[in-house]
Design goal:
Structural class: alpha/beta
Distance between the termini: 16 Å
CATH topology: Rossmann fold
Helix content: 25-40%
CATH architecture: 3-Layer(aba) Sandwich
Number of helices: 4
Oligomer: single chain
Strand content: 25-35%
């Protein structure tokens, strides 16, 4: 069976760890000091439920509440990883604006999204509780994962979940993961 191609955009406020998550996933390393991203694309072959996927990961520049959503963030993109830092209320609030702009530009009320609370290893600086993240994901009807790119906690899970959300959205499997005929 040939590999399915899936293009995934990783979006969020500045310095939430978008690039760290992508690099940890693709290269299995944590980059502590990283220059702010303009936009990078990474590729990785992923095996998920017996299927091979060639994933293209678009590591976007950090967005704020005033950014204009370029069409390249919606055209040809199969799924989204929206990242906030559990240490930053601003990153959490900005993500709500990004989400609204994303759905507005797509002209839909649902997209394959995984909401990610990154930097969960920074316990002492945490300002966003797990329950706050879970509640927002429930409002969006999206998957939710808390992660630490630094400690490589739940990084693979994020990318597995986005593939699951994409397949669920595009009808190749049902809610339980069973193949539809």
């Amino acid at each position: 069976m040939p590999a399915k191609q899936r293009k995934i955009a990783v979006m969020g406020f500045m310095a939430v760890g978008k690039s760290s998550l992508v690099i940890q996933f693709v290269e299995n390393q944590f980059v502590d000091s990283y220059e702010p991203t303009i936009e990078n694309t990474f590729e990785k072959v992923v095996h998920y439920r017996g299927q091979e996927y060639l994933t293209q990961l678009v590591d976007t520049a950090g967005q704020d509440e005033y950014f204009l959503m370029p069409q390249t963030y919606t055209v040809g993109i199969h799924g989204y990883i929206l990242v906030y830092s559990v240490t930053s209320m601003k990153s959490y609030e900005v993500l709500k604006v990004i989400y609204d702009k994303l759905l507005d530009q797509m002209g839909t009320n649902k997209a394959p999204i995984v909401l990610v609370g990154n930097k969960k290893d920074l316990h002492m600086q945490r300002v966003i509780s797990y329950d706050m993240g879970k509640k927002l994901a429930n409002e969006w009807n999206s998957a939710f994962v808390e992660s630490s790119a630094k400690q490589n906690e739940e990084v693979d899970t994020i990318f597995q979940r986005v593939l699951q959300e994409i397949e669920k959205q595009y009808g190749t499997q049902d809610e339980t993961g069973c193949r539809l005929l």
